[in-house]
Amino acid sequence: MPSSILVAHDGSSHAQSALKYALETFPDARIVLFHAIDPFETSPGEDRLSSLTEEWLQREREAAEELFEGALAELDVEPDTVDTDTAVGSPAQTIVAAVERTDADQIVVGSRGRGGVGESHVGSTAELVVKRASVPVTVVR
């Protein structure tokens, strides 16, 4: 059994299912709830990228903390029982890189994220994580 699980979360329902799966399947493992801060992501209605300033990064980290709090509250999980982490970069690359930094021995991801294509069974981030990770990856639908 893995002792440390990295659960990637982007705020999507698939990511929330991945978190629920990890908590239920590995009750004795250390859970690291992880969010990749994508500097190339634009919000609907934005016509250009935000400037990558310290203020931008602080806002993104605060948004990640809110995402973590909401995800854990929805599953009625005490926040102090789960570790959290963020990193800036392409989601797939930062998820794979976080494995070493967090000492995780397994990754759990949702099958699709917020930008999921309707008929696709596995999103591009999940697919890249599966291909590049040095540890087992579970993809949750």
UniProtKB/TrEMBL annotation:
Ranges for domain UspA: 4-141
Superkingdom in the source lineage: Archaea
InterPro entries named among the record's database cross-references: Rossmann-like_a/b/a_fold, Universal_stress_UspA, UspA
Q: Give the Pfam families listed for this entry.
A: Usp
Q: Which family is annotated? A: Belongs to the universal stress protein A family.
Name under which the protein is recorded: Universal stress protein
Organism, by scientific name, is Natrarchaeobius chitinivorans
**Phylogenetic lineage:** Archaea, Methanobacteriati, Methanobacteriota, Stenosarchaea group, Halobacteria
